[in-house]
User: Fold this.
Amino acid sequence: MSQRARACGELRVASGVECHQRMASRAGARLPLVIAVAIVSALPCHALAQQRAQQRAQPAHPHGKQAQPKQPPTRSLKGPLQMTGPVSLLLGKDGAVEVSLKNVDTPLKIVASAGSLSLPVLRDGRLVATYTPPPTRFPQVAVIAAYNQDRSVIDFLGIPLHGQPTLRIDSEPKAQVEVHLAGSIFGPIKLDRKGSGRIEIIVPPGFASATLVSSDALGNQKQEAQELGVPHLQQVFGICPSGGDDLLVLAFDAQGNPLRDARFELSASIGTLSSTAERQPGVYSTRFRVDTPAAQASSTLSVNLKDSPAPAVFCQAELPPEAPDRIDVALDRSTFVAGEATPIEVHIDLHYPGMRLPRKVQPVLTSDIGELSDVETLSETSFVARWTPGTKVSENAEAQVSATIVDTKLEARATLRLAPGPVAKLVLRSSDTRVRANQEDTAIITLRAFDAFGNSTSPGALVVDASQGSLQALPAAEDGPVRYQYIGPFRRSDGSDQITARAVDGPSSSLTIDLDATPSRFVGSARLGVANHFAKSTDLALAADASFRVPLGRQSLALGMETGYFANRQTQSDEVSGLSVDSKFRSLAIMARAVYEFHWPVQVYGGGAMGASFSAFTTSSSASGMVTESATRPAFGGILGARKSVGPALIVLEAGYFYSRFDEANLQATARGPRLTAGLGLDL
Assistant:
């Protein structure tokens, strides 16, 4: 019994394709090599697994047609973008579905090898796009690929697209026929009296034939292979070089899973393609090189699995234009004076090897100081910009402008000498603004010259003098300030000195230095004040001192003698008899003193004294009469004072502490307490 199945005329394909040869040729022409890169884990074919599970569990459709779910099942991949999409789709039945992927920081490009994709939207932290299957009905694998600009992040999802043709079967009248395909059984159907019948089948990608099993009225069975007339399955998907040097190829099996250890046939109309290297499962790269002169703008690249009967896929790779191999920078003049109104013209010239069309590039200019205008294009190889260094040039003897080409190591520099303007200002500074007027103390005077913009410059010819002291020129470092050593005059009184600097035919500047009078060899004072003694009462005190000065740098040590006298009289009750007791205490202290003097506008000094105290203590009462005791005992004191010159005289204020123990047979006391005196003195 012979059977024939007419698949060619019944298989629904795009554009009315009715024969295997025409379908194959048009399929090859319509399979574009789209730019994509993918990482896909091996996934099961859902449609086949579902058909195997249902073929015996459910009654067969009268024509072998199996029910399809309204929403196709989905699967999730474990690639870097965690893509999710349908396990499979039935062409002509299933409509648009959603695919989603992980959102990353870098922008992604999402493309499909067959069908169309909507623009992705962000939903619940993931990018979601709507995928619409193609109008063609022959089985194939659609690849959804997502990658970023530099292709460092890439993932893809393979979606098997199943065809659903209606087969016309011609066999013996009244025969029962089943179609066995991909583990599924379609039918049986009973042919009519003329031996004809129709049956719908589902064809997964990668199957070119089915098995027809027929049974006649006597139970005799016969199997026969039937070609389905579908194009050979295309199992590669390419990403042409775009701004880079690598051609990326995705390889997958009929279930859309990554194809490992694949071998390819590669060719290029211009240039060469290296052998492929597997970057990740199912993703391969090959280096595209053009090392020969070529006037064309693109090269046709083809790729296919080795020994695959499917037609190769093609893409037009733009030939990388030739990059410059040298860059030159020149300035229209070598020196810029601060304040010039005319900017510097910067000329940039590019040089190419001349093997291919030149790549249009825009030089990038940077400078140490100032402002740069936008780079203007004069031709493909010549550019110009304007540089205004500005007015602040004192910190830079030179400035540089650099021209670079982005993404290359080409760089060129030009150096500009910077010069300040003419002298507009002189500034005098002194290391000390106060000098002892003793013809020994010194200060360092520095002189700086500036132009109108505040830039340091050479002062040129100068006249520098002091009204009282003297100036000696000091060596100056190159491009450093002019320096002088100032020596103060001799003065017995405070004053000031005026230092003046004047540039010839230019500005001038002056500086005032305060002069502290040179202290005399001797100093003395007489003072009147109060003293607190016995820690009980306060009485008048007299004091006088005379000292000889020993110079110690700007300060001095005064060594001399001082004397002080005070008396105290009190009336109090005796603790035993209760009688009134009058007491009188007199003390004359003679001590050597040493103080350290600070010669500021107000002289400040401090030190101590040590000597003897000549004391007499007299008591009288109605019971014991008058009793007088006298003694000489050691005495100590502390000194803190200040003097202010008023012509040849001094106004003196001194505070101190006095201590002397009075201890006799009948009377015991301690003369101690602070003293505060004020008076007049002389510097001799």
